[in-house]
Amino acid sequence: MSINVPFSTTLEVRDTCLCLHTQRAARALARYFDDALRPYGLTNGQFSLLMALNRPEPPSIAPVARLLAMDRTTLTAALKPLQKNSLVEIIADTSDRRSRLLLLTPKGSDLLAKAVPVWREIHAELENSLLNGNGDMLRSLLLNLGNISTP
């Protein structure tokens, strides 16, 4: 025998679910930044990944995966188009030949430098228009949400 969930429960989830509202907001923000970064041939995810590699020393996969809240397999897949476009190289770690380091190439660094002003402009526009300049509160809430662990 099938048990039906009442439509009122659907409305409750639609109106109150933090996960749903966060996913919707993330998708809308992603589209907004994708549109702004399209002239540079980047998606918002690729921009974030390139930015995560913009360090004094090339990082290994694990810390980048943690920063971007990705598993290693997803990160490896996300790196492929960046490698193909010569924006990123995966190199052997000289101190541990089994480990791989992620290197932002000069071409990747140049592209990132061109895209940053657009990111800054779009980011400031969003923060000022949608958040009335109060982005710190939203960042704090999102950081707290990002630190929850599974039940």
Automatic annotation (TrEMBL):
Gene3D superfamilies on file: Winged helix-like DNA-binding domain superfamily/Winged helix DNA-binding domain
Molecular function in Gene Ontology: DNA-binding transcription factor activity
Pfam families: MarR
GO biological process: response to stress
Domain HTH marR-type: 15-147
Protein's recorded name: MarR family transcriptional regulator
InterPro entries, A to Z: HTH_MarR-typ, MarR/SlyA-like, WH-like_DNA-bd_sf, WH_DNA-bd_sf
Source organism, top-level taxon: Bacteria
